[in-house]
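Complex 310.
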Amino acid sequence: MIRYAEGDALAEAAAILRAGGLVAMPTETVYGLAGDATNPLAVARIFEAKGRPRFNPLIAHVLGVEQARAHAILHPLAEKLAARFWPGPLTIVAPRRGESDVAELACAGLPTIALRAPAHPAARALLAQIAPLAAPSANRSGRISPTTAQHAAEELGGAVDLILDGGPCAVGLESTIVAIGADGAATLLRAGGIARADIEAMTGPLAAARAGAVDAPGMLQSHYAPRARLRLNATAPGEGEAYLGFAAFDHGPFNLSRRGDLAEAAANLYAMLRALDATGADVIAVAPLPHAGLGEAIADRLARAAAPRD
Ligand code: TXA
Ligand code: MG
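Predicted structure with magnesium ion bound:
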């Protein structure tokens, strides 16, 4: 079920995808649950496997901007962002082309499409054989995204035909999502693996997504959630609480980054939340973290993980 992402396994994965099957694939952000984006049955299986509401569209993964142009109308600003950040942890949402062969279901009927060119070599090797691939994070809807092949197996086990092991994800947080409208207006739909400032250096100030909008349902209030409840900005654990430290806020074995490095913290976040959840504690107390740079995306995920559940 889990195979190292090389040679024969990559060829087998491509064959599964061509036949409409699903493959968990490593990317530099998180593991994705990939299917042929042009095959409506494969796309339907993705929604099914994740227990994902059908109003929540999927990202179409491509090799690069040339493929992206076949599916979206890219304003010069979108072209500029792609040239700067692809392959990498940036997703661009742009008006969808009528002639795109991506299944309607993948875009949840929206007039736009989300596109990303991932950097992980295994993802690129797959995309060289079959593209575009629709791939949400390979977790059950609402839960923590997997950053290892083992975690993807725990989330989706039987619902996926093959899991490619490409090692732990280097970035560890989902891609930053930016919408670029037909007029070049730039909106931040999701903070992620590329810091806001790096994007704003090219776009100018990013507009904020409308609160609660279905523009980016990854913005749903409760999301990325472990079983345990989270208590944020905790300088120390309370009685019976597990603790997730950062820098000098250090109590017990779990610290996102003892040297206070936010990139290291991002890479550790989901695996440590899983490990803390597995201790059986009812509450995970989380150290304060700076909100600058990648801290914005980390704070966003922690806030959603801490949000009241239905
Ligand atoms: O890093 C990532 O982006 C990972 C890896 C696997 O590439 N993928 C990922 O996919 O995080 P997912 O499905 O978990 O999150 C995609 C987000 C969702 O919040 C979805 O609502 C949003 O992208 N999205 C997709 N298409 C959209 C569109 N046309 N307009 C607005 N938001 C869109
Ligand atoms: Mg997700």
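The mean pLDDT is 95.
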